[in-house]
Amino acid sequence: MAVGRLAARPVPPEPAPMDPMAPNRDAPTDVSPPPDAAWLAIGERICSWSDALARHTEDSTALTRTYLTGAHHGAAGQIRTWMEEAGMQVRRDAVGNIIGRYEGERPDAPALLTGSHFDSVRNAGKYDGTLGILLPIALVGLLHAQRRRLPHALEVIGFAEEEGVRFKSTLLGSRALAGTFDTSVLGSRDEAGTTLEEVIDTAGLGFDHHDIFRAAYRPEQVLGFVEVHIEQGPVLLNAALPVGIVTAIAGASRYMIDLAGEAGHSGTVPMDMRRDAAMAACAMALELESYCRARSELVGTVGLLEIPHGTANVVPGRARFSIDIRSSDDAIRLQAVADNLESFARIARERNIEIKLTPTHEAQSVPCAQALQQRLEAAIEECGLPVHYLPSGAGHDAMAMARLTDVAMLFVRCGNGGISHNPKESLSAADAGTAAAVFMRFLEEFSTPRAGA
Questions:
Q1: Which element (helix H / strand E) includes 371?
Q2: Do 131 and 423 touch, CB atoms closer than 8 A?
Q3: pLDDT per residue as tens digits for the range 408-418
Q4: What is the pLDDT of residues 333-381, one digit of tens each?
Q5: What is the DSSP string of 101-151?
Q6: What is the separation of C-alpha 344 from the centre of its chain, rounded to a whole number of angstroms?
């Protein structure tokens, strides 16, 4: 098998519409060759493992796997088995991360890190996070079968928590490894009233919350971090490309907006005398949408909109909504926040509405390391594929790991319009195989000194 090489051959016929792995039927024809049979087999193995891992769920009708639940422990156990079968030494830490190490040519050499998360949102898809764990495990198994060692160690990390579903705190796993874990979140409670501290202490990991600081890598132990992840969007799909290189992970600003007007009878309060909090919220939401639609570098979302105690025949006296503004350019994002909050204040004045703004999340954008991007570019070119760069609008574990080391991301195309955080999330075995070939070539490229380095 020619590692990292993709054999050129005609594009295969489109899969049947009901095939859950089928790409979007409206997508253009691929501009790159499919993987050869050996890499396709690797892709099929990755997809098969994804199916098996999806059986570890808290919900019998949907995939839901939240932090340190029984389903979460079951998934960690399965990942451990696959890591050990691939020839890795496996350990867990105090937050539940599972880490497989494949030694390099010299024992105890610094490691290139890779991986992603194995927790999920509620009613999730099968590939968000897990692709970035299973793909490198498959490659380590290939290296082990061929009795090959890299000049450096390779560590594959299954981050225990990224989504923030159970305790409303994101990136717990990667923050622990980067040495930036915020111990104040240990008092956070889940829906049952159990604190994060209590859950960690009773998880049976062989640690308690006092050991979290011991999970952190020292910078000299690490050569970099590269995360493979489905794109979770339609850009690669619409470009007919299987993989792309991430330039930066977008920064994000989130606020909760609470509005107070005056409730009244829907039939007796004249329109020009109303202090309608719900209509004010709608006006502000449309203002945000209009602003972001006019600027390609931004996305803005109202993900939560509530009318407390709303009734069909009452003018709403209260409303609350969330805003989420993202951009890979922090200056553009912060200007958008300032402009929109100013517009909200104006709308509130015009409608005689009281407004309260509460910041709930602030994250700077994270640029991906240029040197790692260049090595990914070389790997893609050597696999006979077009190179495409794109930003990531979603947050990832690489954001936290950037506090420790240089980071990069390889995006992989997903079908069904690029939908994610949804059971319709899809990935073809061919694309998984292509991504595996690219990442293997990246590992070889990373192990080779660059000219002038």
A1: helix 370-382
A2: no
A3: 999 999 999 99
A4: 999 999 999 999 999 999 999 999 999 888 899 999 999 999 999 999 9
A5: EE--SSTT--EEEEEEE----TTB-SSTTTHHHHHHHHHHHHHHHTT---S
A6: 30
